């Protein structure tokens, strides 16, 4: 995989973007963003088949829907560095008159975003509609989603999970960011969700796990395997085992940085652990 | 007074079904979804003719709204079908975020609206849906008055880009608008010109307003009757022109007075041309079981209630 070092470098740069974005406005969600950095970099640069430019309908290309919209910093950084909009625009995150709202939206016309998300539990239903539109249009491309594990506590997900299998929506790969953390603590403390793999399987999904959810190579191999499993009559679920706050030692293994920005000193420490690669915005 | 003839009682939900069937034949992008109420929403003909364009989602309205939003990505024009209660209050946040805020071209088609749903009682009789929907930025809100108008509205909203809430009902009511009348979103219809009072009605109350105007004429009161089928955007100009002539207004709707058509008109007139107004609407209450006629009478939603409101508003001119 010749691109691997290049992607690794991009991952470090995206981490810097996330940290600098949330630090500047002293708000936003670094923990989940950092935990999903490798996933987003791999998805947009190695897994999804994308057209040049952006149009809402996204015919003849793969689509991605972010259901847990609060990890917008990683989404915005990866979109910008993929060329959807100018990298300098990351400077406007959460500021007045910005297209980079706190949670992603189509309302301000930001290229790369096809649905508003933030109020949790709605993304899978939307992705199902988009996947079924692709089938109606004889469009063979796939639909990808990302969900928080805590987000699965929202009941609408289970309506959608039941529907996806019942209606054989097999052009869909739903990934769960399985970091075991949510705002008030660990998911086991807040509301134990039991065996997610068995739950998805019981609903009729094909489930695969990526144990090293912060290892680019493991993610790429796992997602390629997930792609292989599409088109076989079942929706595909990827349980992506990640570490919240990955790549910044004092933010890891805790829910404390779910929705808190680093102060000046913390930022300096965090950036030192992630030296500049592609160039800061 | 202009005479309107009932062409034969029919339900507005059947007007929706007929409109959807026609759209199935004329617009290949139209798709339909239903949450286990195909018979109630009269969607079977569309399904028979276009099985691949129909999505039965089961009893899962939140999921249905999300799927509808997703179907627009790829160019489809989704029409969702369930009762008004389950089309609005139950799924408000899904509509708010995934449809309205996301600017998705979804047509939310809501049957069994209001109190005339009848015997099922208050759990199913939503009287708050117009208010919920009109508060959403970018949402168009339509409440047609009879079978013909509902059919025409169903066909018209497919041509409109953006989210629409289309509200209709269960009981068979007078069908009196011309079968070939063009439906223009946001355009009020003058049904009878008058000079003493303006009656603005929507939905099932339009026919009641015409009966009221006829009775009032016998008492020497000349009532102007306007049909506002589009609650939002409101045809303020039509209202303004009329009240400048008559000097008072009665609004009539099968909805809570809070949040409904009357409230929209009151707000509009307060800032343009303050006018004495009476509300024929439910008074911040839930409904109950009963026949549609009994409920319309008990909750003050018929021609008698309109006539009473006219007499009272005339005194305030």
UniProtKB/TrEMBL annotation, chain A:
Taxonomic superkingdom: Bacteria
Q: Does the keyword Cell inner membrane apply?
A: no
Which keywords annotate this record?
Thiamine pyrophosphate
**What cofactor requirement does the entry state?**
thiamine diphosphate
UniProt-listed Gene3D superfamilies = 3.40.50.970
Q: Give all residue intervals belonging to the Transketolase N-terminal domain.
A: 19-268
Q: Which Pfam family is one of those matched by this entry?
A: Transketolase_N
State the similarity comment. Belongs to the transketolase family.
The molecule here is called Transketolase
The species this protein belongs to is: Arenibacter aquaticus
Q: Which classification does the entry list for the species?
A: Bacteria, Pseudomonadati, Bacteroidota, Flavobacteriia, Flavobacteriales
UniProtKB/TrEMBL annotation, chain B:
Tell me which cofactor or cofactors this protein depends on: thiamine diphosphate
Q: Which SUPFAM superfamilies does the protein's record reference?
A: Thiamin diphosphate-binding fold (THDP-binding) (SSF52518), TK C-terminal domain-like (SSF52922)
Look up the domain of life of the source.
Bacteria
Keyword set includes Transmembrane: no
Q: Which UniProt keywords apply?
A: Thiamine pyrophosphate
Describe the location of the Transketolase-like pyrimidine-binding domain by residue ranges.
10-175
The record's section on InterPro entries has: PDH/Transketolase, THDP-binding, Transketo_C/PFOR_II, Transketolase-like_Pyr-bd, Transketolase_C
Q: Family assignment?
A: Belongs to the transketolase family.
Q: What's this protein's name?
A: Transketolase family protein
Tell me which species this is from.
Answer: Arenibacter aquaticus
Give the source lineage, highest ranks first.
Bacteria, Pseudomonadati, Bacteroidota, Flavobacteriia, Flavobacteriales
């Amino acid at each position: 995989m010749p691109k691997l070092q290049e992607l690794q470098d991009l991952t470090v740069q995206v981490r810097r973007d996330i940290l600098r974005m949330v630090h500047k406005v002293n708000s936003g969600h670094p923990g989940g963003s950092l935990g999903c950095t490798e996933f987003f970099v791999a998805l947009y640069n190695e897994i999804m088949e994308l057209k040049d430019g952006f149009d809402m309908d996204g015919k003849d290309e793969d689509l991605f829907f972010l259901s847990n919209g609060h990890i917008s910093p990683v989404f915005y950084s990866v979109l910008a560095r993929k060329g959807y909009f100018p990298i300098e625009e990351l400077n406007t995150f959460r500021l007045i008159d910005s297209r980079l709202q706190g949670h992603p939206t189509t309302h301000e016309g930001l290229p790369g975003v096809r649905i508003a998300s933030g109020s949790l539990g709605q993304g899978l239903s939307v992705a199902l509609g988009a996947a079924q539109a692709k089938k109606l249009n004889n469009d063979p491309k796939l639909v990808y989603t990302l969900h928080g594990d805590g987000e699965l506590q929202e009941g609408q997900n289970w309506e959608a999970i039941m529907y996806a299998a019942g209606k054989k929506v097999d052009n869909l790969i739903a990934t769960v960011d399985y970091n075991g953390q949510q705002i008030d603590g660990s998911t086991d403390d807040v509301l134990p969700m039991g065996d997610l793999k068995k739950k998805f399987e019981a609903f009729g999904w094909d489930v695969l796990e990526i144990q090293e959810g912060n290892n680019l190579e493991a993610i790429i191999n796992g997602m390629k395997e997930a792609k292989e499993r599409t088109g076989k009559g079942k929706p595909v679920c990827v349980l992506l085992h990640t570490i919240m706050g990955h790549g910044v030692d004092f933010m890891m293994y805790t829910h404390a940085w779910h929705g808190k920005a680093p102060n000046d000193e913390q930022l300096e420490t965090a950036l030192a652990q992630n030296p500049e690669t592609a160039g800061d915005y | 007074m202009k005479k309107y003839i009932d062409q034969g009682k029919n339900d507005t939900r059947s007007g929706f079904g007929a409109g959807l069937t026609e759209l199935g034949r004329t617009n290949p992008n139209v798709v339909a979804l239903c949450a286990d109420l195909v018979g109630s929403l009269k969607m079977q003909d569309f399904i028979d003719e276009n099985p691949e364009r129909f999505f039965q989602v089961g009893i899962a309205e939140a999921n249905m709204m999300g799927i509808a939003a997703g179907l627009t990505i790829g160019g489809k024009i989704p029409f969702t079908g369930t009762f008004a209660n389950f089309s609005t209050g139950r799924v408000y946040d899904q509509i708010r975020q995934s449809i309205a805020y996301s600017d998705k071209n979804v047509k939310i088609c809501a049957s069994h609206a209001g109190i005339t749903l009848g015997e099922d009682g208050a759990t199913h009789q939503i009287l708050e849906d117009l208010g919920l929907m009109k508060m959403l930025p970018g949402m168009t809100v339509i409440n047609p008055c009879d079978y013909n108008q509902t059919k025409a509205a169903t066909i018209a909203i497919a041509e409109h880009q953006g989210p629409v809430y289309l509200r209709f009902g269960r009981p068979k009511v007078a069908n009196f608008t011309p079968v070939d009348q063009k439906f223009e979103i946001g355009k009020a219809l003058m049904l009878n010109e008058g000079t003493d009072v303006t009656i603005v009605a929507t939905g099932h109350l339009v026919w009641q307003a015409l009966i009221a105007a006829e009775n009032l004429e016998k008492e020497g009161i000349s009532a102007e009757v306007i049909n506002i089928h589009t609650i939002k955007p409101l045809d303020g100009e039509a209202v303004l022109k009329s009240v400048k002539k008559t000097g008072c207004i009665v609004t009539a709707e099968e909805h809570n007075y809070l949040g409904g058509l009357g409230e929209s008109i009151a707000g509009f007139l307060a800032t343009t041309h303050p006018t004495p107004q009476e509300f024929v609407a439910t008074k911040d209450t839930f409904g109950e079981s009963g026949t549609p006629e009994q409920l319309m009478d008990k909750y003050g939603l018929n021609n008698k209630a309109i006539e009473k409101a006219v007499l009272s508003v005339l005194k305030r001119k």
